[in-house]
Amino acid sequence: MPGGLSSSVDGYLVFGAVKLAGYSLAGLYLNRRYSGATASFAVVGITRTVIGMIFGAGLALLAFPFVKFGGLGILIYLVGLIPVRLVEWWIIIWLFYDRSMITKQKDWQNVGLGTAWSFALDIPALIGFVATGGFWILLMEDRSKSLLRHAQQSLAADGPSACSAGGLRRETSYEPLR
Q1: Which sequence spans correspond to the domains of the chain?
Q2: Residues contacting residue 19 through CB under 8 Å, at least 6 positions apart
Q3: Are 77 and 67 contacting, i.e. CB atoms less than 8 angstroms apart?
Q4: For the chain, N or C: smaller number of CB within 10 Å?
């Protein structure tokens, strides 16, 4: 069933803005968890958002060929997000909070929380994406039923000459053979 966005740029901007705000809040949280943290929460948020866009696009490119098999491509993408997001959060921890990786237990806790937070942010981000992107979907079955109903009504009202394949009226006249 075909579908798309009227304005994918607007949708993607809102998606990114929601993620940026959420990841900046995560940076604020992480700054409090790591006593020697010097990074700005906004820099953490921007960095995490950019990493997510790069890794997310890469995963989408890998999963895209499987979309033709129906939900398999979406399933591959969603399952693939788990290890990808774990890696993304490990990068954030390493870049801003624990370069020597000496607080492994706290690091794993924060990576797990960050991964869960990424999935939680998907909900408002996707709602914003769809709401501002103008998502549309063409329901082929409903269109076919509508055309069939129109054809049946035309046949009942005006006979076979009033109906065409596209559901448009067309007058037809026949000349007698001589």
Answers
A1: 3-136, 139-178
A2: 48, 49, 52, 121, 125
A3: no
A4: C
Residue that wins the pLDDT comparison between 158 and 82: 82
Helix (H), strand (E), coil (C) string for the chain: CCEEECCHHHHHHHHHHHHHHHHHHHHHHHHHHCCCCCCCHHHHHHHHHHHHHHHHHHHHHHHHHHHHHCCHHHHHHHHHHHHHHHHHHHHHHHHHCCCCCCCHHHHHHHHHHHHHHHHHHHHHHHHHHHHHHCEEECCHHHHHHHHHHHHHHHHHHHCHHHCCCCCCCCCCCCCCCC
Cβ neighbours of residue 135 under 8 Å, at least 6 residues apart?
3, 4, 5, 6, 11
What does the alpha-carbon distance between residue 171 and residue 165 come to, in Å, rounded to a whole number?
Answer: 13
Q: What is the pLDDT of residue 4?
A: 64
Q: Are 101 and 94 in contact (CB under 8 A)?
A: yes
Residue 151: partners with Cβ closer than 8 Å, 6 or more residues away: 163, 167
